[in-house]
Amino acid sequence: MEGLNEVLTLFLSIDNFIAIGVGVLIGVIVGAIPGLTATMAVALALPFTFSLAPVTAILLLVGIYKGGMYGGSVTAILIHTPGSPASACTLLDGYPLTQQGKAKKALQMALYSSCIADVLSNLALILFASYLAKIALNFGPPEFFWLICFSLTIIISIAGESVIKGLIVACLGIIISCIGMDAVHGTQRLTFDNYNLMDRVSFVPLLIGLFAIPEVLDFYLKKASPHIRAASSGVGLTMKELKASMSSIVRGSLIGVIIGAIPGTGATAAAFISYSDAKRRSPNRANFGKGELDGVAAAESGNNGVAGATLIPLLSLGIPGDVITAIILGAFMIHGLTPGPVLFQENLPVVYALFCGIMISSVVLLAVGHGVIRYFSLIAEIPKAVLLPIVLLFCVYGAFAVNNSVFDIGLMLFFGVVGYLFKITGFATAPFLLGFILGPMFEDNLRRTLLIGRGDPMIFFRGPITWCFIALTLLSLFFALRRYWLERIRTAP
Amino acid sequence: MNATPSSPPRWANLNTLLGIVCLIAALVFLFYLVPQHIEQAPRLQNPLQSPRWLPTVAGWIILLLSIALVIEGCLRPPQPEEGKGETGQDRAPAWRWLLLLVALASYWLLFEALGAIVAGVLATVLLFLATPVRKPWLYGLAVLLPWLVCLLFIHVLNVPLPSGSLWE
């Protein structure tokens, strides 16, 4: 009873509620600005937490994190510019929905699936933290290697009209990801002695260039068409539509929780795996990529399912799962708390107060999201002639902000042209992005596995987790290729 | 599906052309870029750990897939709607994409010289003229918005943007 009192005293403070509200709002706004990520917002907010109480400080950062995860999807849906890498998957169906005048529907689906995934992820954190952390601890380089192989099989399902073209651009993405200084040997790869490329191709300019700039180029290179007022962007999501996507949301959340609990995997892979799973199961799979609400739900639930789960290895083992949780780990340490088993022994009331706050943050996300959707969905009604120059302005400033370098603006424009060429030649952009993200992870884990196995290939088959992922990889490949052949036979002239 | 005397041959389509371009690019990559621009590590325990291994594998896969794309293009030409973007019938007038080009160049080449605000104003006004935007008050927005966004980046988000080397 005394413990409960202590938890309530720590949690039921007006400061905590303000911190969550402000954090979520900042996160949504920053996440919605192209080029600015939740990571940047959390890092910028860290100094402001020094004078706050530990629980308030961490809840502020968690609020920004969660808001940023959702905010990234807003621009992905409305202007084909993912605010974060993970929301690149959301735009596959979100943007076509906006083009059909269903922006509000897509935004609401993204919000509800984000919130549901967030709640499930938080519950997993509270109820199964220690159990999931034990499983995650068994993940070494060979297990990661097979997880990445499994994730790479998704390329087939997001390849668009042509699997061959999808695989070509995925390989191109892998090659682009190799540019820079080799992490193990320190040798240069395709840098052409340009020091700007030594630290690999910056992710944010590539992301913005690939998705936002082609829209700008496409608009200005075509004859001006009259603006069609998308009055139907005001039509909201119905309960029936939400119910129809519920199974995808729950499955996506579970995928997000599992991926998020494994340190270093990230929300992008979770979003794509969830999307691919939903597409495989859906009776409307032909509509995926053309404006399917289920696609938005799956991508967003996979993406947000990670948010709470990344705190599992952080709180229970003291291992940060990604950059944001590494910053949150820093906040813990600044306030004299050491995440890990010791935290549960010495500061249990703080942990439970945090759990309460994290649960509340999902409700706050729902409220803030609801509040901002009505304003954000108005963006879809701004004529493109006015909107696109403004989008370009944010893109240029955002690309520059990453490294304070004009080179990144050039890089963004270069990938914009690449993205435009992809668009007019029928190459899907998503496989390129997946290849770019997964390529370095694939190579790093392959090398680490070979190093720890001293060249023995049996290390790749060392335990049940590796076998599980090998089976998943083979099954995923088999079903994807089978579906591809059946589709070819069906559409054969 | 038989080619009539006036229509282009069956193999002459977008996929075949793309396959040939990818094939040439893959050959250049594998036989020029990889040996010349990827340094080999002095000592290797395993060839799979070579800095050249992953790019080479990816290059060979592209080579094989581009051959597959050429074959697919010859045997199964894409349907007309797949190449819709290539028709060029809705192309904008030259002055419009020229203004776009100047706007993009001003962002890239003049960003540090003019500063973020002036480069932003210049590019936004040029893009408004390209459409063209007819409401005069929107040009006021083109001046105000870069300034406001710049202030947001510099003072709220703590991101330094160039103020312009020409004005210093």
UniProtKB/TrEMBL annotation, chain A:
Start and end residues of each DUF112 domain: 18-434
Zinc is among the record's keywords: no
Signal peptide positions (record): none
Domain of life: Bacteria
Protein name per its UniProtKB record: C4-dicarboxylate ABC transporter permease
Organism: Stutzerimonas azotifigens
PANTHER family, sorted: TRICARBOXYLIC TRANSPORT PROTEIN
Coiled coil: none
Keywords: Membrane, Transmembrane, Transmembrane helix
Membrane-traversing stretches: 7-33, 39-62, 109-132, 144-160, 167-184, 249-275, 323-344, 351-373, 385-402, 409-439, 459-481
From TrEMBL, chain B:
Transmembrane segments: 12-33, 53-71, 97-130, 137-157
Domain DUF1468: 20-162
Keyword tags: Membrane, Transmembrane, Transmembrane helix
Domain of life: Bacteria
InterPro entries assigned to the protein according to its UniProt record, in alphabetical order: DUF1468
Protein's recorded name: Tripartite tricarboxylate transporter TctB family protein
Organism: Stutzerimonas azotifigens
